[in-house]
Each structure stands twice: as structure tokens, then as C-alpha cells.
Amino acid sequence: MVDQQVAKIVASEEYREKYGFTSNVEYEEFHKGIDEETVRKISKIKSEPEWMLEKRLTAFKIFLQKPTPTWGADLSSINYDDIYYYRQPKGKEANKWEDVPSDIKKTFEKLGVPEAEAKFFAGAEAQFDSSVVYSHVNKELERQGIIFTDTDTAVRKYPELMKKYFGTIIPPTDNKFAALNTAVWSGGSFIYIPKGVKASMPLNAYFRINAEKSGQFERTLIIADEGSEVQYIEGCTAPVYASNSLHSAIVELVALKGAKIRYVTIQNWSKNVFNLVTQRAHVEEDGRVEWIDANIGSKINMKYPSIYLKGRNASGEVLSIALAGEGQVQDSGGKIYHLAPNTTSKIISKSVSKGSGVSTFRGMLHIGKNAENAKAHVSCDALLLDGFAKTNTYPYNQIQRSDAIVSHEAKIGKISDDEIFYLMSRGISEEDAVAMIVLGFIDDLTKVLPMEYSLELKRLIKLDTSGGVG
């Protein structure tokens, strides 16, 4: 049960004004619960080709067969029959902001999405529950041949690319939630960067769960062709309800020879959302993938970005931060598989826990038999804000080469009364003192974010660490 301190945070004027509000939006009629009819109806609404319907139906059968995972956080309270698997706001997708339905537009305006796009982003996409309601791509990117659209549109307009890559990085057999997403997916981002093209500005997507007892199951696929580069940034929020919502996304990244992808997530779901996401990248020769993953919100968060280094000289990095406030479980980390010679990697994890919050790091480092001269570093640091918070660390290293260079370090610390007293003696409030210490602890992450997102992350952390220590 959410205690008084959580209630204080989510009921605060600042939190509700920025994230916790609900928008009165009209939806197309759709039944609750999941069965074969649900899957067929979603596909029919989208006028999908037969090959996509077959993928959905196959995945639905796999979903029924696979058990809910029991090795991590407690997911037993998820009621799959009490969820709306498709929630489409009335109205059509718009490529001009003024054409977005007024209630939805007001929601994203309060979140600052249009302002951010106008000032910073080359392309933007906004998803509201199951539907992409706004999509815009800078004309210069179009001239470069960059494709940035929602995944539903990609099925119709780019079937050859979708058939070639969809579900090949993360098949529905991977886990129960991968199967669920493949069966009922809707929306998400599809990006293709042509050979040698470097997108000089980030592409941006914003995902919002608005309706109560809703599921959001977007599907993102990014293909960076040989020698190309792209940075993609996504943000996530939801209002505060008494009942739970489910977010179960799939992200597939393909970095071909010499390509570079940076994928940034600022996850701030409300504390009634189960955030169960599968993310994976395949990296070919001389390619590079970076996951930068900030997890602030959700009731239970289970997310472990994975990188498969398949080509010679490929490299990858997972940099994650998890903040487990009152009543939250942040179960996160990263996985990297070295499968070719001269590959390099880093996994850097920072977690902060407060009160009844629990943070858990799960890391997997695999160096295969063909990964000659592989180099890898794993670091997981945890900060406890009081005497009640908990943290767990489960690193796993599987080394099959004697010439591999592998380092691992882990640290756990607690904010001391002396540190707080020192800062307060300099005229700093207790809340600001705690926030300063936390922000210094996660400086590795904030310094690599674009300025707008770095400032927003700092503001969120200050809000979530308010209330001091002890």
C-alpha cells in the first residue's frame, strides 16, 4: 500500500500539474480482456496484411503457454482479463500540431512536448494510449532519406523492411511479455537511417497512458544501415489511478556495419504502472549501440537492455539509473553478449533507494568462444537514502575465453547525517541537500543527456527525493 510519503509526492501540486493529471478524452469502443477475438479485432482495425495477423495469432498462443515470470519482482497481481488492450482516441493522426484533437493537444502541451520539439528535435512522435496521434519529421531529414514514422504505418508502407526485421531480434518465444506485445502491439516508432547518413539532431517520441486499466504495447524498430548514425529519445508518463496499468513494450535495434545508435529513455510512469519491457540490439562489424536508461517512475519496473556484439570490433554500452521511491520496485540492469573478436563493452548501473523502495541490479556479461581479445567492464553502485531502503545485486559473468579482459566493481553507500549537516550549515535546505548528493551520484548519466532532458531529469529526481532522509 502506498504510504503517506508517496501520497505526499503524487498528490503534490507540482507532480499532478506536470504528470499526474487525467485528460477527458473520448475513445473508440473496445472490450476489456484478451482472447483470440481481441487479437483479430486489433489487426482488423488496423487493416493489416495477413502475414502480420498470423504473427499476432502465433504470439497469442505462445503467450497462453508461457507462465508469468517468478524470478524477479512479484507480478502475481497482474490481472490480464482486467486490462483494455486497445484504447484508440477518437480522431486521426495529425502531422500538424494544430490538427491534433484539442483534449489530447492540451495534455501534451502541459507535458511540454510541442515546445521541446520546436526548440530541439528534428522529428517527433506522440502516442496516446494505443494510438500515435501526432507525427512530424523535419524536411531536411526527409531529404536525407531518413524514415521516421509509427510502426503501424511502416507495416503498410515498408513491408519488406518490416518482414525482414520485425520479431527477429526479439521473437515472441523470448518471454511471456514479448509474446503478449507481439500479439496486441500498437503504435511505436519505426526508423530507418540510410547508408552513410548521420542524423545530426535527435529523433523523439513521447508515450502517454491516459485511460484507467489500460495497457500500452508499442513496438519500436530502429535500423541503422552501414555507416549511419542516429540518436533516439523517448519519454513516458501516466496519471495516478487507484487501479494498475500495464506497459509492455518491445524495442529492437539493428546497427549494421559501422553504424551507431544511441537510445535514450526517461521513464516516469506513475506509481500504478507495471513497466515490463524487452529491449535488445544486434551490432555488426565496427558498429556501436548505447542504451541510456533512466527509470524514475512505475510501481514495478523490470527492464534489462541487451546488446549482442555480433561483428568484429563492435562495441556497446548500457548506462542506467533507477530511483526506487516509496512503494516502488526498480529491477533493472543490462546484458551484453560478446560473440566476435575485438569487441568491447561497458555496463554502468546507478541505483537510489528510499524508504520501502527496493532497487535490484541484474547484469549478464557473456564472452563467447569466438570473442577473441574481448574487453568488458561492469560497475554497479547503489545509494541508500535512509535506514529502511533496500538494494540487491545479481551480477553474472560467463567467460569462455582465457584472453578476455574483464573488470567488475560494486559499491553500496548511504547518505550520512554528517553530509546533510555540512550542506545545511551552508544555508542549503535538507531537501536540496539530498537532491544535490543524488545528482552528484548519477552525474555519469546526466552529463551525456541533451540539455533539455538533463534538466528535466534533475527536476524529477529533486521532486522524488523530497522529504529528506531518516
Fraction of residues in helices? Answer: 25-40%
Task: Outline the low-pLDDT stretches.
Answer: 1-25, 110-135, 238-242
Please tell me what the overall shape is: globular
Termini gap:
20 Å
**Structural class from helices and strands?**
alpha/beta
Number of E strands: 22
Proportion of residues in extended strands: 25-35%
Layout of helices and strands, plus pairs?
Blueprint: H1 4-11, H2 13-20, H3 36-45, H4 50-65, H5 102-111, H6 113-119, E1 123-128, E2 131-137, H7 139-143, E3 147-150, H8 151-157, H9 159-165, H10 176-184, E4 189-193, E5 203-208, E6 215-216, E7 219-224, E8 229-237, E9 245-247, E10 250-255, E11 260-268, E12 273-283, E13 288-295, E14 300-303, E15 306-309, E16 315-324, E17 329-338, E18 344-353, E19 358-367, E20 375-384, E21 390-399, E22 405-414, H11 417-424, H12 430-441, H13 443-446, H14 451-464
Can you offer a commentary on this structure?
- It is a single chain.
- The protein is of the alpha/beta class and 470 residues long.
- It has one domain (4-464).
- Helices cover 27% and strands 34% of the residues.
- It contains 14 helices and 22 strands.
- The strands form two sheets. Strands 3, 4, 6, 7, 9, 10, 12, 14, 15, 17, 19 and 21 form a twelve-stranded mixed β-sheet that branches. The protein has a ten-stranded mixed β-sheet with strand order 2-1-5-8-11-13-16-18-20-22.
- The longest helix is centred in the N-terminal third of the chain and has 16 residues, at 50-65.
- It is globular and about 65 Å long.
- The two termini are 20 Å apart.
- Residues 1-25, 110-135 and 238-242 have low confidence and may be disordered.
